[in-house]
Write a structure and sequence with these properties.
alpha+beta, 2 domains, two-stranded antiparallel sheet, 5 helices, 42% helix
């Protein structure tokens, strides 16, 4: 199976509409920030989206802070919880936010997920783990 591309770009939320069909977000993207491959994607193509606030005054929080936020978001995600328990391979562990956080910290040799902010080596390992998780989502049919 081919490796799925990951895209990173900035967007600004313009509106949010709730209806019987779902929740619709209207976002504003800066044309220079959109990767060419994404701008030519077929209409109807589905994407998995992770969202993290950039911060006050449009100030970029930096790679470390984004990694901390992403780790928190992922640990609250049931599929990530399941994946972390699967790779930890210890019987009797229930997939929960707490177990995912505990396994992630152990896997990355961290005392706290907040340590991702300043630990470049752990962020690299976290990026590899995230890539493996994304691949697992695709292979297991869980990816959107």
């Amino acid at each position: 199976m081919s490796r799925q591309r990951t895209y990173h770009f900035e967007a600004r939320l313009n509106s949010l509409v709730k209806s019987k069909q779902g929740i619709f977000l209207k976002v504003e993207l800066t044309p220079n920030d959109i990767p060419d491959e994404l701008s030519t994607a077929a209409v109807g193509q589905r994407f998995m989206i992770a969202v993290s606030e950039i911060g006050d005054m449009d100030e970029d929080l930096g790679e470390g802070e984004r990694a901390v936020q992403l780790a928190g978001i992922l640990c609250r995600t049931p599929d990530f919880q399941e994946y972390m328990v699967k790779i930890y391979d210890q019987p009797g562990i229930t997939p929960t936010e707490d177990s995912a956080a505990r396994i992630l910290k152990d896997y990355l040799h961290l005392k706290s997920r907040a340590d991702l902010k300043d630990n470049v080596k752990a962020r690299r390992h976290f990026g590899s783990l995230k890539d493996s998780y994304d691949q697992w989502l695709v292979e297991s049919g869980k990816a959107l």
